[in-house]
Amino acid sequence: MKTALICGGHGFIGHHMARRLKKEGYWVRTVDIKEFPYGDLESDVDDYVIGDLRDWNICKKVFYVSDGKGFDEVYQFSAVMGGAGYIFTGLNDAKVMHDSALLNINIAEMSRKAGVKKLFFSSSACFLPGIYVITNYGGSKIENIEIGDYVLTHTGNFNKVLEVSDRKYKGIIKIIRIPGFPPIQCTEEHPFLLETGELIKAKDLNNNDRLIMPIPKLREDNSFINIEMAEKTKQYLQVINDKPENLMEYSKKYNIKYHNIYNWLRSDKFNRLIDPLTVEKIELDSDFGELIGFYLANGWVEKCRSNPRLLFSFGDIPEYKKRISLLLNKCFGIPYNRICTINMKNQKGFKLEVVSKTLYEFFSENFYDGLGTRAVNKLIPIYLMNSNKDFLRGLIKGYWLGDGNVYTTQSRTRISNSTVSLNLNCCIRMILNYLGIPVSLVIKSPESHNFQGRVIKGNYDVYQSYIVGKEAKDVFSDILNIEDIETITSKYIKVSENNFSLPIISIEDGFYDGSVYNMEVEGDNSYTVYGIAVHNCVYNQLNQKDTDNPITSEDSAYPAYPDSDYGFEKLISERLYLAYARNYCLNVKIARFHNIMGPEGAWGNGKEKSPAAICRKIAEVADGETIEIWGDGCQTRSYLYIDECLEGVRRLMNSDFSGPVNIGSDEMVSINKLVEIVKEIAGKPDIKIRHISGPLGVRGRNSDNKLIKEKLGWVPNYSLVEALKKLYPWIKEQVESGKEDCPWSN
Question: What pLDDT does residue 353 have?
């Protein structure tokens, strides 16, 4: 009688395999850290052990059928694993790497020592510092990006950074030049997203390629903001409006000091000791946008002990004084007598000043990065970036009137602005891009100036943006009151609904010795440098971005670039078992499973795969209700029913082929389509879908079955619909029984 040891034999795939081998006449032992929750271990197998295979003593105990006799076959299914909600959050990487690696080292070594005849293993399917990345708060040099930041991806969304990395690098780099932007310097292997949708490594780019600059998807979901009025201001306005005759009685009734009421009523002017902000609900319209734009260009705040204040400074342009005063009055309710004009000594021009603690706090808390209140610290908060287009157009108007440069010739208008704030530059560029206006960028290093015999050196880079596309005509003709404005039309930029594209004009080799940086971004697995989209499983994740045509042939796993540490661990373990096969003549068989599904697997503990999760969600709600799905639902996968998986494993074990080989279905389906199939099976056609953010993994994955057909003369052919017809009733039964999925099942 043949003998088999199933490691991880009380998990989903392991226990199904144990039952099959038992039916084939094998003497079967299973070992796992826990019991199987859905069957009778004593009747399903000949022997079972509850033990941790990370423990070397447990391995020595279970790998022998009897004294000195090892098993004919060992099946290694034990691992730390789960669905996207477990693998792709980044929170479990250390546990995945440590526990799975230790399991595989122990099992490989004990298989050698015990003389196991056949061993099956189930696998699974940088930039230089200084370059800046677009974030939801503006921008950041790549070396300053942190886990938890949100960065602009190639889809125009802002997704969370799950991991940041840096490493020492010495060697060739690529210097990629595109028109209107600083050169992009990176290692040869870093992938870029092309206009065609392809991902191409830097070393393979050429001058015919066009790179993508995504247009940010700002949400127009804010129409008002609220500012808390000072309590004393509320009392003052109440007194002024009521105009009480009996001051003593009024003082007692409203608990306001008598002498305050008396003094407030004596003058027709707004009291100089009262905070002048008199509007609490502020409409996010073009006027408020214009005021904010003026502030970003030429405004600042001063603490001034007990008299914090808001200030604006301009040249000798009387209409600006009148305009800003009007906006302060309209938007914040500031009385005109509280807007002070201060002439600047020995200079042309003026300052406007409003003494107001409330305004000081509003501007200092909302328009700076938290590291100071200087020009270099300015930014635009994300809630204002997500305001309506009238507000954003007004903001651009105020900013350009305050600090923009407009130079008109006979044929065109040159429009630019500059700032020492990286965040502010990025925010302004994102707004312009959102309004459909392309912008180029020049970064100027700090300059030195000779002043009265002293050399004064600037402290900060200057970020200078230029409006270059004809698309600016409508916006800036209105903003600048220039009829028939003709901006510099770029022959390079192409404009589409979701992005701009720019050509590569040259690629050069350089040499670099130092640190390089990269990051892992949730969902889209991409980010932008200078606004240009770049990319960030055992299979190379670059081959799995296309939802329709993912590349998952067995040899595509190399060069290695998995989408998670789980994938890296699987590849490393493959190499481990292959090394044992070469050095110790161990007969190793390796398969890469693609999303195995079926009854008796995880369905509600956070480790379930998408078919089980969707079945559970649909089973839990009534027809017409709504379920939540991670991502846009366009990501594609293929799913293999458990019986087909077992058949593929048995055929591989009985063949002369070692692998690795894919065992999976090539019937690819989107998550949205998967939901539709389950809805039909459940008889709940009117269930609605709400797409939410969440861990997604790669965009596309499908099993490439050419090799398994060639080597084994067989391919899986069980349809997805038939598989789901077996899975859904089982999960529905679990839900209706009120059971909870075992927290350790996989």
Answer: 94
Q: What are phi and psi of 325, to 5 degrees?
A: -60, -45
Residue position matching structure tokens 């906006």: 327
Nearest CA among 183, 185, 159, 160 for reference residue 171 = 185
Furthest CA-CA distance within the chain: 109
Query: What's the CA gap between 295 and 588, in Å, rounded?
Result: 69
Residues 325-342: pLDDT tens digits? 999 999 999 999 999 988
Regarding pTM above 0.85, the answer is no
Catalytic residues: 566
Nearest CA to 214 out of 527, 425, 591, 612 is that of 527
User: What is the spatial distance between Cα 159 and Cα 536, in angstroms, rounded to a whole number?
Assistant: 13
Q: What is the mean pLDDT of the chain?
A: 81
Angle at 428 between CA 422 and CA 431, to 5 degrees: 140
The answer, yes or no, to whether residue 560 has pLDDT greater than 70, is: no
Number of H helices and E strands in the chain, helices first, is: 21, 40
Q: Which residue is it, tokens 């670099």?
A: 512
85 contact partners, CB below 8 Å, separation of at least 6: 606, 607, 630, 694, 695
Strands (E), 524-625: 526-529, 532-535, 588-593, 596-597
Residue 442 contacts residue 414 (beta carbons within 8 Å): no
Q: Which residues pair with 129 in a beta bridge?
A: none
Q: Could you read off the pLDDT of 387-413 as tens digits, one per residue?
A: 899 999 999 999 998 888 877 766 667
